[in-house]
Write the structure tokens for this entry.
Amino acid sequence: MCENGKALWWSCVLIDEQSHIRPKEFFYRGHNYFYTGHVPALANKKFDWLDGRNVCREYCMDLVSMETQEENNLIFKLIQQNDVPYIWTSGRLCDFKGCESRKDLEPKNIFGWFWSANREKMSPTNQIPNGWGYNPWSQTGHKKQRQPDNAEFDINQTAESCMSVLNNVYNDGIAWHDVACYHEKPVVCEDSEELLNYVASTNRGLRL
Ligand SMILES: [Ca+2]
């Protein structure tokens, strides 16, 4: 499945000394989560998409992935209750090297999206996902078209390859948008089983 070619393990090794300060804001179905705006050392910082991912990885986490409506509702509630303007998620468009041969990802704007945290494919963007009561992608945006719309590409040829949750930026409530990855935003991190298992297997008895 899609990979972005970045090293997976560099940061989690740091956890040996830092495990006692792994931020844990809430717990849901076996995973811890936190919003960077609620961690003093990160509260006033914003990150581009990849830097955001790497911040999460320092805590054996990754950017949040909302595979179910229940989990999505939880993240929408966090955004609403704390007046968060926007966050990065692990949602990513498979538009990099290795994706071009995947006929099952065409057309990209509908079938090309996946959760980079676990490399799980997203539902087609133009449909209500299985088991959901609504389509989380916004019905509008910069071009007044449903998302994903790759709008910035028309302005400066930068693809909107990363998925953000925006809080009413287009008078559209809290909803998913494709956004160019260089923009800086706070993030929500979620436990990465891959990283936690790796660190646990190399540090017996360590409490994560
Ligand atoms: Ca967009």
The CA atoms of residues 133 and 163 lie 20 Å apart.
